[in-house]
Amino acid sequence: MTTVEVQKGSERVMGPVDYLVVLFPENRLTGKIAPEMRRLVDSGIVRVIDLLVVRKDGSGNVESFEASEIGGDAEEAFQAFAPKTKGWLSQDDAEAIGEQMPNNSIAAAMLFENLWAIGVKAAMMDAGGKLLEQGRIPPELIERAQNEPSTIMIREDRT
User: Fold this and answer.
1) Which one of 18, 103, 116, 148 has the lowest number of neighbouring Cβ atoms within 10 Å?
2) Over the Cα atoms of the chain, what is R_g?
3) What region, left, alpha or beta, does residue 104 occupy, with left being phi > 0 and alpha being psi -120 to 50 degrees?
């Protein structure tokens, strides 16, 4: 496994932390995602910080589980991440996710650190740079930009 870690004083420089929430209608969470997650972790691209499963039953009741409490094939597949998760996702997070879910569904929420960015961040800090802004462009906007005519205008200087 490749691990990139840069020390600044007594603290580790962290890469950007992202989250995602994936909905599985009709409670169809399986372990099929786990091998790809494991590949990303093992290659040093990301570090899983937390993994939380939220279930909403047919009556609208919401409950949440850590990776080690999922049960079935999914628990076995995600078990490798259980000892490494930090518990950053809270019950409030689970309830907020549950509000967006239809009844009789399950969702997996994951926080992950982008380890690939640590070296760039450390170099930026060493050069005295300060991050002004960071964000993520939603996939829907990227798709729309790729499928629509360009809005870039080139003007000729006629002087």
Assistant:
1) 148
2) 20
3) left
What would the DSSP string read from start to end of the chain?
------EETTEEPPPPEEEEEEEEETT---STTHHHHHHHHHTTSEEEEEEEEEEE-TT--EEEEEGGGS-HHHHHHHGGGGGG----S-HHHHHHHHHHSPSSEEEEEEEEEEGGGHHHHHHHHHTT----------HHHHHHHHHS-----------
Look up residue 60 and give its two tokens. Answer: 């609208």
Q: Which two tokens stand for residue 7?
A: 């020390």
